[in-house]
Amino acid sequence: MSDPVCPLCGRPIPKGVAQSLHHLIPKLKGGKGGPAALLHDICHREIHATLTEAELARDYSTPETLRTHPRLAKFIAWVQKRPPAFRSRVPGKRRKR
User: Fold this and answer.
1) Phi and psi of 74, rounded to 5°?
2) Exposure string (b/e) for 11-40, b if CB count within 10 Å is 16 or more?
3) 97 is a domain residue
4) Terminus-to-terminus CA distance in the chain, angstroms?
């Protein structure tokens, strides 16, 4: 069985690599029990450092739309050059809900 692939950056997520489940529609905005995607932890943290819960629910509720956001597109281009187990702190404060 092959490793799952992160729908944001397209890199594999090997066993033992930091990963987390991203609710495509935030739970606070009605997404509880809705679709979710398994992401690298660094990719998930970048999404929440970039977008508010309202923006995620309104405009960025699929991996395809997330990849169109300018800051996330720049992040993806950067992180794709790193190995799947790469970890780093996300700069800046987390966005408000």
Assistant:
1) -65, -45
2) bebeeebebeebbbbbeebebeeeeebebb
3) no
4) 37
Q: Is the distance from CB of 95 to CB of 69 less than 8 angstroms?
A: no
- For the entire predicted model, the pTM comes to 0.87
With a pLDDT cut of 90, the percent of the chain lying above it is: 74
The CA distances from residue 49 to 14, 15, 35, 90, in Å, are 24, 25, 21, 7
Domain count, the chain: 1
How do residues 9-32 score in pLDDT, each as one tens digit? 999 999 999 999 999 999 988 888
Domain contains 60: yes
Whether residue 49 lies inside any domain: the answer is yes
Residue 13: inside a domain: yes
pLDDT band at 88 (very low <50, low <70, confident <90, very high): confident
Per the structure, the complete domain to which residue 79 belongs is given by 1-88
